[in-house]
Structure formats: structure tokens, C-alpha cells
Specification:
Blueprint (H helix, E strand, L loop, with lengths): L1 E4 L12 E12 L7 E7 L2 E9 L2 E5 L4 E4 L4 E5 L4 E7 L1 H6 L1 E11 L10 E5 L6 E3 L5 E7 L1 E2 L2 E2 L8 E8 L4 E5 L5 E13 L2 E4 L3 E3 L6 E17 L7 E3 L2 E3 L2 H12 L12
Antiparallel strand pairs: 1-2, 2-9, 3-8, 4-7, 4-9, 5-6, 5-8, 7-10, 11-12, 12-15, 13-14, 15-20, 16-20, 17-18, 17-19, 17-20, 21-22
Bound molecules: manganese (II) ion.
The site of manganese (II) ion has 5 residues, from strand 3 and strand 8.
Length: about 270
Amino acid sequence: MINIFPNGNNFGDKMSPFYMIDYQPETYYEPSEKKRGVNVHPHRGIEPVTIVYQGYIAHADSAGHTGVIGPGDVQWMTAGKGILHKEYFEDGFSRKGGYLQMMQIWTILPKANKFVEPNYQTLLKDEIKTVILNDNAGAVRVIAGSYSDEYSQVKTYSEMNILDVILNKAGNIQITAPAEYNMGILILSGQVELNGINAGKEQFVLFENEGTTVDISATEEAKFLVLNGKPLNEHALHKGPFVMNTAEEIDQAFEDVNSGKFGYLEEEKV
Ligand code: MN
């Protein structure tokens, strides 16, 4: 797993309302009878978004949601006031072995919505609104927010767009957003030119809050993720699985987990 940001610095503030991206590039896993993944752990104050490109991931949480997501699918979890969950390789996939490629993004809940009820939404590949670009340039999957005249069905608590883009060789796209929006682009594969600057596989490009348009051309077929959104302008304090606004709220979160306020979820036997 590669931590794309905040990566040990204060970079997260430059990407608010996004706090973090962890990215697992394509990795082969041998067949195994062992459980692989992350056992029961809490979250509060964020919405963890999981995008699977290859492989199968199973989810279960203390609010009673379960689900499996595979290639092209997205899981949008609202931790809100507190949830316990576990994230595992789906059993059949783990036994058979295969390639896993996935990403987890943490979006920050605004102060006013930190304590909303936990929720879970699965966006299956076929349900994700997709814009086919003119001139065979490629396609845009609208995971959150909108692109052109397509709108994601995901409810977000602040203004943001998450776009999963494929550009064919020589394809071109313009992404526009208000100058105040924070914006970053993670290249998953291929080579692109972003406002005249070259970027390639696993590079993350952070934009200044200047101008409103990013012009992207693929010098070879490319896949990349665009994140942009209105900055929350609230201090984001991160500790462990929590992103809150104050140190007191972080302490309270640990206390509430320990006293059982996040509910119950059975541990996987590993
Ligand atoms: Mn988690």
C-alpha cells in the first residue's frame, strides 16, 4: 500500500475535503486459505471510500451492512458518529489467488456533520454514471459529484468530485472547477500532459488554487483519478482511525470506542 497523501506532512490541508489516499498498485497474491485484510477497527469523522480495480474485497460493519465489491465497484462508507468495520479479501478470491489493485480515500466530514448516523453505499460498476467523451477520447466514471451532465447518486456532505478517467492515446479532456477548489490528480497508468506538464504512473499532481481549468492529454493510453472539492477550512486533526476537529474530540473518540459506544462487530478468526 502506498500512502499518496498526506504522507507525513501537512499536505492534507491542501486537499481538504480529502484527507488521505492509500493506493495498492496491481499486486499478485498467491492462493491462500488464510484470511487476508484488516480486522475489526473503528472510524469516526470521515467517509472512507474504497475503489476496486482488480480483485474482490468483502466488508462488514457494526451497523449491520455487509457487501463484496469487485473490479469497477466502489464502496462509500459514512463513519459519522462511529462505526466498527472489517475489510477482507473475499474468501473465494483469496483461495483462488489473483491480482489486487485498489484504493482507499478518506473524505473529511464537515464539523457540522461529524456525528451523522453511520451509513454504507455500494456503487456497482454498472450503476456508476459514465460520460463517454467525444472523438473516442475516453470515458469518465462519476464516483462523486458530477461531470458534464452526469451526477453521482452518492450523497456527500460537502462539495466534491471524484472522477475515474480513462483517456485513449491522444485523447484530451478539460476538468473545470472553481479556483478555490483544491484539486489533485493521481495517475494510475500511462502518460499524460497536465497543463503542459508530464506525469506518469503513480505520480500525484497537486494543483495551485489558481485558474479553473486543467487540460489533460494522453501521450499514451492513461488511467487517472481526479479529486477536487471546496476546502472545508476547518482544522483536521488525525489520530489513528479518526479525523476530528479538536484534541478533545480525538480523546473522546478513543474513550467511546473503549466503552462500547461504537457497537459490536465479531472479530475474524485469523
Ligand atoms: Mn477502515
